[in-house]
Fold:
Amino acid sequence: QVQVVESGGGLVQPGESLRLSCAASGSTLRVSNMAWYRQAPGNRREFVAAIVGSTGALSYADSVKGRFTISSIAANNTGYLTMNNLKPEDTAVYLCVAELDYRNYWGQGTQVTVSS
Structure:
């Protein structure tokens, strides 16, 4: 059974950086695409960034462009989201979704809190 696990969240001050990890396990298949979403309390889940594994095509939400970078998907089905110049409005649970064999698998999320 495929399992997706995020890690790397935490409490940081504005302007600092974090790197989130997303690891998919339980399958011999390669993750074809990976994306990050986030959800703050009382808000809808919103798209953050995505990568198409076969082409390397990237996409980002306007709110994170120039600050966040999604990595390529490693052979061990791990990907990263590097977040620089974090702002209080980036505070949310960050969730990874990995696509394998045309199915999407979501992790439970990792909390990112940006506060002084």
In short: The two ends are 40 Å apart (CA to CA). The mean pLDDT is 96. DSSP finds no helices and eleven strands in the chain.
